[in-house]
Design a protein that fits this description.
The chain contains 22 helices and 21 strands. With 585 residues, it is of the alpha+beta class.
Length: 585
């Protein structure tokens, strides 16, 4: 046995106990928490110095006092259930709002610990801890969380994720969260490694860590048919970065609008370059297929109340589908539905739904959508999407298709208007033949082509004999009717690829690409006979004279002049004749 332990201190056997008590008291007094001991009669037996800050009285001043006299009647009454519990031997832990000696409202966590000896409760220990700062921080966090939730749930096409330093989701909220295949309850309280696939968690972790380090990181992700723009950024607090936040915005519609405007710009450029309606329709079909990511897209023009032509189809018209369509009663194809109702439509292709629908079904298509195209207020046709999947078209796609159709209407309307203006600018108003300006432009192109290919080309210039007498005898209206009839008979005589024009007055010109001089003379003779053998109503018999020249006999620069010279000679020979220019004569 250690002799030092057996020897009394200063001859007083209670000295070690007193020293220990003083040490314990010193430790308890140094703690910021209010600590005390109350007996079964609820009288104070011990209290540390922290009581002064809470109740404004020293431990000596409250020793022996009843708890009611120390904390006040109201607080004592509020604690009755906890006091009963601890005196029954059960530990009590609860929170309470206390106004301290300085008049400050503080949030306290109070613990009652029973002192049990030989199975009997002798009293209980009390510890009161000031948790005001923690409560306020939690309230701020809850308030901020509520704000984030309200923000995320109120903004369409957005969701918000808030995560802590352990990459644990604190908040997962927003209308678009379901697009990622998760509900808020599945994410909140769990780390990214617990709820996400290993690949996705590995992809996100460095971005989340960067946000917690104070950086802002952005990226995009496509989920199904939707595209999201995501940004991870830090959440700043008074004491530094407290968390990270991810804001995801659905940018699908924006991207679709950008692609739509790019497509429309492509169409508008083609219109500005005077592309033909067929070229515009081909472009529209190709753009529609690309823009909507469907198996096929088409531009359909209605040719009657129950008929239509597929003007263009991308990628190509299936062998099972006829380009010329006839809609039977009850036909439920997308184009037929638009033709019958004038409204956008989504349909399913099945057997027994009309001939057009059956053709599309035979071609492998199972669903379609169409929107009407109106030009100058009239139903012109439709743009049509077709899919090999039954769910390949949707209501949202139909809405976009209808918007796109409105813009296509402008392009097609402008194209047809340009074509009409071009036709008017190049056509003789009376006869419908090309005018001199348009003919000269066409002749220049054909001369270049003949020069390149070496193919023959001939020109016939025709003039109505004694036409002045018609105007003088019967009047100019009758003369106009003669000109119209001559133009009509010349059209009947000419062949495909040949070009007719009215040069002015009673003079006409006929260009025959690929035709030599002798054949051109024969053609002129047919024309001359068609005029001379059939009388003109109200006028009687008329004749024409013709001059013929082949390119090889005159050259590009003099072809028209040489044909005119031949016409002059036909007039000299007594009219109603054909003369060919040859070998300088």
């Amino acid at each position: 046995m250690d002799k030092r332990q057996s020897e009394p201190t200063d001859g007083d056997p209670s000295a070690p106990v007193a020293a220990t008590a003083r040490q314990i008291s010193a430790v308890l007094n140094s703690l910021p928490a209010m600590i005390g001991y109350w007996d079964r009669e609820l009288r104070s037996r011990f209290a540390n110095d922290a009581y002064v800050g809470w109740i404004g009285r020293t431990p000596e001043q409250i020793r022996g006092l009843h708890m009611r006299d120390v904390v006040g009647e109201e607080a004592f009454r509020e604690n009755q259930s906890y006091l009963a519990g601890v005196l029954a031997g059960k530990q009590q832990l609860f929170g309470q709002t206390i106004v301290n000696a300085s008049g400050q409202t503080r949030q306290a966590q109070i613990s009652y610990m029973p002192d049990v000896q030989d199975g009997q409760v002798q009293g209980f220990f009390v510890m009161v801890t000031d948790i005001t700062d923690r409560v306020l921080a939690e309230r701020r966090e809850h308030r901020d969380a509520s704000r984030y939730r309200a923000l995320a749930s109120s903004i369409p096409s957005v969701f918000v994720l808030l995560f802590d330093a352990d990459l644990r989701y604190i908040i997962a909220e927003g209308q678009e969260l379901a697009a990622f295949g998760h509900a808020p309850a599945e994410l909140e309280g769990r780390t990214i490694h617990e709820v996400l696939s290993p690949e996705l968690a590995a992809e996100l972790e460095p971005r989340y860590r960067a946000a917690l380090a104070g950086e802002e990181v952005g990226w995009t992700r496509k989920i199904g048919q939707r595209t999201f723009s995501l940004t991870a950024r830090p959440v700043d607090a008074a004491d530094g970065i407290s968390a990270g936040m991810v804001v995801a915005v659905d940018i699908t519609d924006r991207l679709q609008r950008e692609r739509t405007w790019a497509a429309l710009h492509e169409i508008a450029t083609a219109v500005a370059r005077s592309a033909a309606p067929l070229d515009i329709s081909v472009r529209v079909a190709a753009i529609l297929q690309r823009l909507f990511a469907v198996d096929s897209a088409a531009v359909v023009r209605f040719t009657g109340s129950r008929s239509a032509d597929i003007v263009a189809m991308a990628p190509r018209l299936p062998a099972e589908v006829d380009r010329v369509q006839t809609f039977a009663p009850g036909d439920t194809s997308a184009a037929a539905t638009v033709a019958f109702t004038g409204k956008p439509a989504i349909v399913a292709y099945e057997p027994g739904r009309g001939p057009v629908g059956e053709q599309l079904f035979a071609g492998g298509f199972r669903a379609g959508a169409a929107a009407p195209i109106r030009v100058h207020g009239e139903l012109w046709g439709a743009i049509v999407l077709t899919s090999r999947a039954r769910d390949g078209v949707s209501g949202s796609m139909l809405d976009r298709l209808a918007e796109f159709a409105e813009l296509v209407e402008i392009a097609i309307g402008n194209t047809e208007a340009w074509e009409m203006l071009e036709h008017k600018a190049s056509t003789d108003a009376l006869t419908g033949l090309l005018n001199r300006r348009a003919f000269e432009s066409r002749l220049a192109r054909e001369l270049e082509a003949a020069d390149t290919s070496g193919a023959p080309l001939s020109l016939v210039v025709l003039d109505i004999d004694s036409f002045k007498k018609v105007n003088d005898s019967f009047g100019h209206p009758a003369g106009d009717e003669v000109l119209i009839e001559v133009a009509s008979r010349l059209r009947d005589t000419s062949r495909k690829g040949e070009v007719l024009a009215r040069l002015g007055g009673e003079e006409f010109v006929w260009m025959l690409p690929g035709t030599g001089g002798e054949d051109a003379v024969q053609a002129a003779e047919r024309a001359r006979r068609s005029i001379s053998t059939a009388p003109f109503p109200g006028i009687g018999a008329l004749t024409i004279s013709a001059g013929v020249c082949e390119l090889a006999d005159a050259g590009k620069a003099h072809l028209m002049d040489r044909a005119d010279q031949a016409l002059y000679r036909a007039k000299q020979y007594g009219r109603n004749s054909t003369v060919r220019y040859r070998d300088g004569t």
